[in-house]
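Below is how a single chain appears once it has passed through the pipeline. First comes the sequence as given, then the structure the pipeline wrote out for it. We keep one example in the README because the format questions we get most often are answered faster by looking than by reading.
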Amino acid sequence: MAFYDEKTETLIIKWNVEDVQSVRPDLNNEQANDVLYVLAENFDANIGVDWDVIVMAAEQLFPEDD
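Resulting structure:
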C-alpha cells in the first residue's frame, strides 16, 4: 500500500506481516517480522520492495523444504 502525505510531502509505502504471509503462509508472525526487518535494513532505492523481493528475502531467511 502506498500513501502520499501532503503535509510532509512524503510518499510512504507500507508492507506488513500479513503481506509477507500472503506469499509465505508457512511463516509465523515473528518470522514474517524478521523478513520485514531485513528488508528495511537492506533497502536499496534502486531495487525497491515488491512481491519478488519479499519472496527472495523470506527464502534467504527461511528456506522452504522442497
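The chain is about 45% helix and 10% strand.

See the next section for the split statistics.
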